[in-house]
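#onboarding

Welcome to the new folks! Below is a worked example of what a typical request in this channel looks like: someone posts a single protein sequence, and someone else replies with the predicted structure as tokens. Don't worry about understanding the tokens yet, we'll cover that in week two.

Example request:
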Amino acid sequence: MRIVAALLVAAFHIDALAPFADSSIARTYHSLFGQGGWAGVTFFFVLSGFVLTWAARPADTAAGFWRRRLFKLYPNHVLVLAAGVLLVIYLGIFPGTGIAVANLFLVHVWDWRFESWWGVNPVSWSLCCEVFFYACFPLLIGLVNRVRPSRLWIWVVAVTAAIAAVPSLAHAVLPDEAGSAALPIGITELWFINGFPPVRTLDFLLGIFLARMVKEGQLPRLPLVPALAVAVGGYVLSTQVPYEYGLAACTALPFGLLVAAATQADLRGSFSPFRNKPMVWLGQISYAFYLWHYLVLMWLADLFAERQPLSTAGNLGFIALALTVVVLLSWATFRWVETPMMRRFAVPRRRRPATATSSPDLVAQTASAPLAARGEGQRLGN
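Example response:
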């Protein structure tokens, strides 16, 4: 499912970096994907809370959890950031050493100024939120585990309401700022609603509660196709409401229910379009895909700058070329950076199970195994 969200984010950025010359096609494309970036990231945040809760075991320690997260997140990030530094220097838009260093340590989104949280690789702002989630997770899961199973639904409703209330809170506490041609709301308001880590922790927390509901058998059976329809409906609604309410308020719960429904389908062994081998493989490379795609789009947009905006056929070719380059880079990064680093460092050697060193395809195996039977391999691979 991650690759679908990553493609939504990529489609959103294509709208900005590779516009169609035909105005009617450009409007149609924007109506379809103009909210894709916000929706895709919201999905990632909810999914993170769900998957980490699903994979958590009573014997887990905070140190072990943080170690796995560190070696999952940082190797890819450092590699792509290094490429990003070279690219922005080449393009003449290097934001400065201070911002680059903040981007390296994934703290740049704590600064609300656009040039800071945009950073070197713009999509890495979401990793700053993920780092905050991971830091809080041992505490959050301990508190959530104290909630009686019969009351979990109350907390799901409460967290969903809080997510929906964030735009109103932003209006109340932030100074008025004029929008721009690109955004109908001010940059500080966008940052607070969409990028401020404590606020986005609500999405993560929603995923935690939904995972517990599925684990405890407190969530009624959700057929996958209706859940998918609800998720699509939430996305469509996000394109119709005021901009600030379309960032997360309309999609967080529908996306969470979709993840829960897909999990139930996996547990039952019933059909899921996300569980076939091509989709599993694309899901495996999706983290690298997410990190690489904006830099590749910037590079190709610069190469084709003199021909922008492209014709419809030219733009479709541009998109196909960009996606091909991103997929190849993502596969190489997953194969030669992400997988070896997780296999070597995610679990201390004295505790690493024998299969972690004997199996050449550990991550692929854990990604395609049934959710209920992943055990230690799941904790290593997520």
